[in-house]
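Q: Fold this one first, please.
A: Sequence and structure below.
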Amino acid sequence: MDRGRLLALATAVVVALSACGGTADVTSERADPIGGIGADDPTLTAPAPPPADPDGPANDPTDDDLAVDSGGEAPAAPSVVDVDTAAINFGPNKPPRSYDDFLLAVMTDLGVWWSQVYPEVYGEAFTPLEGDVYAAYPERPDDIPGCGAPRTTYADVQQYVAFYCGVGDFIVYDDGEDGLLAELAREYGAATIGTVLAHEFAHAIQLRNGGLDRALPTITTEQQADCFAGAWTARAARGDAVTLRFSDGDVRAGLIAMTKVSDPVGIDQFEQGGHGSGFDRVGAFQVGFNEGPGRCAELLDDPLPLMPNQFTAGDVVTGGNAAFGYGENDLIGFLPEDLNRYWGEELDITGDRLELVVVRSGDGDRCDDLRGDLSLGTAWCASTNEVFFNEPVALDLYARLGDFAVGYVLATAWSEAVQDAVGSDLDGEDRALLNDCLTGGWVKTVTPIDFALPQPRLASRDSVRISAGDLDEAIQTVLALGDAGVDDDVIGNAFEKIDAFRGGVIDGTDSCLAQL
């Protein structure tokens, strides 16, 4: 982010849940371009991430950035009832995992759900998987079928995390103790693996409906698979699943799964093997969650809009982050200027400029009419038309998540002033969610004209615009700051806040104001 440069906010955590590999029959979780299952080609490696600024914050958030507070213990698995023990081929030597019964419940319900939903959506009977769902682990003998090779080894599976193979109609997932899925389960809960398996099962649906035979861009089939995973997650959250039920925390874990494995920022998602940004992946998941499998079925012919994922040369040099500072070309210098320019000058909503006041505590004692939660980074003082900026909190967000984490919390303070100016009588969670939408509406206007969204940025504001990774950092910020559960009703949980923010980015400011 910089005046005259892109708001380049790089992050490595976006969803991959993706189609890759040297054969169209393989669809997998990992975004790395590698050969067919069983291939051993050291020249095929993941694209190198852009160089980081050695003096700036790391671009990759640590696991602690989004960690669920579980008292030092792994989050509990979702509640499970009767399961089909044949739903997964565990093999002869499998070490037990705490989430084994949960994964059996997932695969059991996915089979039940698709047997009901597929005829409704596609008008024909559902054919169950011909092959098995295989757990792969180092101790397992070489008894997993191959996909483009005679057999699948554990080393092969580690490259993919999980994959679906159309030749043999089977699914394999990494069940190793040190694998990425086990790590995600320890950090965020077993629901992360449930989302992965629901996504892979969706590729089996695409084989049945002819989607994998259409030579579509990878990003299109991946978007639909993410959508179907979201639709199934909604079923589990509603209590409709026959074998398990998801809590709010499990839904959040599913969102996190959609942001933890992906293309590095800088990859063109429209090339074969491309996957899209975390913003796009979470968005497709939410469309499925909110609108159901029938909407997902439409996405092969009517895909959702996509955000850019490519770095410019300038982004590579900067590592994707503007300097945290108050000068004209620093983050806290040009962002308030642009927010004032948009809301005050161009839309004439807030009128007078909002002035930034830097504080170093979250108490807000200097204002008797503070709107917002200063402990989260910013708040608006209505009586003085000042934005209080909690510098220690902002610095922490910047270091952990990147510069658009700061941009996000700054923009929500301006959104508070906008609501006041238009006479909004919302309060509590509803007000906070509209702030998220208005923040997204501002972001849309600083989206470069050659990117995928239809509304161009305004000509007078060419000095500020966003690029690859920005919106992914916004998603991470929401995951970190949102209410833990839907019943908290304070500022909205992560799902609700992301949904509101995406609505503003996709549909613009007018769609947000229309909610009043």
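Q: Good. Now the second chain.
A: Here it is, same layout.
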Amino acid sequence: MRTSAFLSRQLAVWLLMVTACQSATAADTTADPILRGEALLQELPRNATEQQQRLLTAATLFLNAQAYAKALETLNRIDTAKLDRALRGDYLVAVTDAALGAGNVDAAWLAVSRPASGQLALAEGLPATDHARVGERRARVLEKRGQYADAIRERVLADALLSTEGRRDNVLALWSSLQKVDRGNLAQLQRQPDTVLAGWASLAAAWRESADSPVMRSQKLHAWMEANAAHPAAANPPAGVAQALATAVEIPAGPATIALLLPQHGKLAAAGTAIQRGFLAAWFQARENGLPAPSLQFFDSSRSDFLATYDAAVAAGAQLVIGPLEKENLRLLLTRPQLPVATLALNYPDSDTATPGGLFFLGLAGEDEAAQVARESLARGLSRAAILYPDAEWGQRIAREFETVFSRSGGRVAARSSYANASDYGDVVKRLLDPASSIQRHRRLVNLLGADIRFEARRRQDIDTLLLVANTPQAVQLAPAIRFHYGNDLPTVATSHINSQRDANASGDLDGIRFVEMPWIVNEDSPLRLRVADTWTGIDERLFRLYALGIDALRVGEQLPLLGGSGYRIEGATGVLTLGAGGRIGRELQWMTFRGQKSEAGDDTR
């Protein structure tokens, strides 16, 4: 036994030595930027100017290797008074990039803030190209600080001086900031004497004002192009604008009469009212914009004999029926082999049953969101997932759909755990991320070698993304547990349930989590959303998304014939809508990311 234990220890030591040698051999190469940077720092030149240049070169190598802390440390050793003027632009860009990479927005702002003081005084007298580079970095920092109007000004100033590739990236970021700036600042930008800046702002205003109508958007964008033919955006418009301009939009010849079959009594009456209000808001807006507005009929789907109510709506001349919302009424419709008119149910059947001709389905199913998250994760190269979901019917459905789509497309769900209540959150997360295994391996090696070894616990390494299925209160408690159990480096994604309360990220606990959300929630300045807020005050937040469902019920109902065409899409309030198999209307939502004390549209990590 002693001999066996001795040989085991010797074998372990030999394996560690071989591994160390192999690592040293692999690292001992000029291709490693960190080693090259450290080598440059070993013997600095005595000449002060050459010394600053050597430090800047080393810092740039560390920056390229994403060793941001090391880059900042090296940059702080530079005596800027002795730095060659030709390198000052490189220095300011490097400091900003390193600080942003390290997550230190304040340090980045110190480097590029106005007025010129401290480090920014270095920018005086720089060549135009360097001024443009520094201005572009200043815009990045302003975006991180949420100062979008100032960032827009910086990007407009820098644009003409950037390279072709630089201008392309700059326009993307400029357009993104124009979508995020608040209404008051956007209006101020439109009044600026700088015609280029004012033109960009007026283009963004036209885009926003037409968010609820593809027809109106096409009209407004073409009108802007005619009035601003000399503007840079007229020659090279942002991708979304170019696509909208190239898409022929026709006013659809929708149904002349629509019947709404929604519950007016019972437990779903409040939901029915919210849907009807959203529908009416969109209907009134269409009329005001000169678009066709069908005549409307209203029926109570909560009456005892639903099929008789449905038949009465058809007999009254409805060419399109919207409803029912109730599952039990939908089951009754499914017993019919053919429906007399097109019917848009606002719910989904329980299973893959035969669908009567003329029946379509639109709703807010979490499965659509789960499928989108799965596809996008794989598109990012993340193929080994873990799922954390509530032990409830809705959580199980979302987890099941994510796994189905993820696995079918080449991914693998390596781990899954469900949680029941707050008392077991920590234990569930600990089991899922399994840091205990790394601790146990360390203990076995210590016992084997008879000596302590430097060690840091880590989570399981067979996963590269985590789907967090949770509402806001659940997520606010689960996210710290994920970080505590060494999951802070694990890309975490979620469905819109995580954004179920207005103060979802007030504590910053959800920082970095990416999630999908309907445009109705993202676009707070949408004219239709503002109309709803002005018309009906004190809306119950739990019902707010149902207003968007009512809006899209009108849009889908009017454009059903067009949806049958190949590739036809509707820019809806609940998402980008397309017609799928079995009459199901699929939704593609927008991406958002929790950042500090707020959530932002998109997931740009520049």
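Q: Anything worth noting on the second one?
A: Residues 30 and 188 are 53 Å apart (CA to CA).
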